[in-house]
Target: Peptidase C1A papain C-terminal domain-containing protein
Amino acid sequence: MAADSTTKLCLVSVVLLLGLVSSLQGVSADNLTKQKLNSKILQEEIVKKVNEHPNAGWKAALNDRFSNATVAEFKRLLGVKPTPKKLLLGVPVVSHDQSLKLPKSFDARTAWPQCTSIGNILDQGHCGSCWAFGAVESLSDRFCIQFGMNITLSVNDLLACCGFRCGDGCDGGYPIAAWQYFSYSGVVTEECDPYFDQTGCSHPGCEPGYPTPKCMRKCVSGNQLWGESKHYSVSTYTVKSDPQDIMAEIYKNGPVEVSFTVYEDFAHYKSGVYKHITGSNIGGHAVKLIGWGTTDDGEDYWLLANQWNRSWGDDGYFMIRRGTNECGIEDEPVGGLPSSKNVFKVITGSDEISVASV
Ligand SMILES: *[C@@H]1O[C@H](CO)[C@@H](O)[C@H](O)[C@H]1NC(C)=O
Ligand SMILES: *[C@@H]1O[C@H](CO)[C@@H](O)[C@H](O)[C@H]1NC(C)=O
Ligand SMILES: *[C@@H]1O[C@H](CO)[C@@H](O)[C@H](O)[C@H]1NC(C)=O
Ligand SMILES: *[C@@H]1O[C@H](CO)[C@@H](O)[C@H](O)[C@H]1NC(C)=O
Model:
């Protein structure tokens, strides 16, 4: 009897948890026809429409990065799945002192010029790993900002080893789960577990297969140990969906990961301050937010680094309208603070204490 009612209770809570899917990045993508999915993502018609629009505020072009890509291939890169609400249970929402004086414009690259990783533009290949890139890139920057060290952390560790807790690897995942992984599992360096490898088409750079890489838990170079290469975070949080709080968070702690809805016109972004003008909702995407400012025309913007290489957009970067939650960009910024564990090595059991540089 007792066991029976426990089982029932469990079933009820499982059903409840399954039902609780956050709507934050959950604006579901449009249902596209097979014909649409097989057509090219880049269209002269969209370029024309944007560039002739009197108030677009941005320029469109046929970006080389997607010169041959179909809508389906482009959609594949948009790997942010709607976050299950249970993942957010107990995750603090950080807000900042509203009296903190913030500059009118801010660029993390110039604020912390010694941290070259902030300005890196990466390439997610053909895998829907944006959820992992935005997280790993922001955490790498935060290690440099906090501890004064250059470090590139491994997207592959997160992508291959986080498993279903993070979602579905190259088929998309949850940004908040990536940050949680940094707390409980840590993440090795890119040197230990690189994103691209030489093993033919099993890696995320290859077409047409691009499966999620296998979790090897072993550094590619023989003299590095997986466990010692792990770098951790001490906290995981979302930032309050208020531009002031998001700006204060970047100003104090460095870049954050944000998600937003991508429409067809975004594939054509070249320069200026993006806002959605035309095209269908293709999916959810995650990137790294590195600053803000206001144009000469008085338009407030966010400054972001994408991971579609430098032949897309403004040398790999883009700006998007700030303060109006354009495409949901202000909905759910996520971050965490780096831990000194494994950064400063203390050799216990002997008199020797060495501070290692990484
Ligand atoms: C797409 O189709 C599914 C199932 O047919 C439906 O539940 C969903 O509401 C549709 N989404 C949109 C955005 O039209
Ligand atoms: C682009 O597509 C065409 C036709 O679909 C194909 O012949 C060509 O090899 C492709 N080019 C690249 C660079 O993939
Ligand atoms: C960007 O694309 C170029 C040309 O395809 C490639 O050689 C380079 O490795 C890419 N950059 C990154 C960071 O993967
Ligand atoms: C990181 O590397 C760059 C270029 O190699 C160097 O100029 C910079 O000082 C380094 N930063 C730190 C924090 O060591």
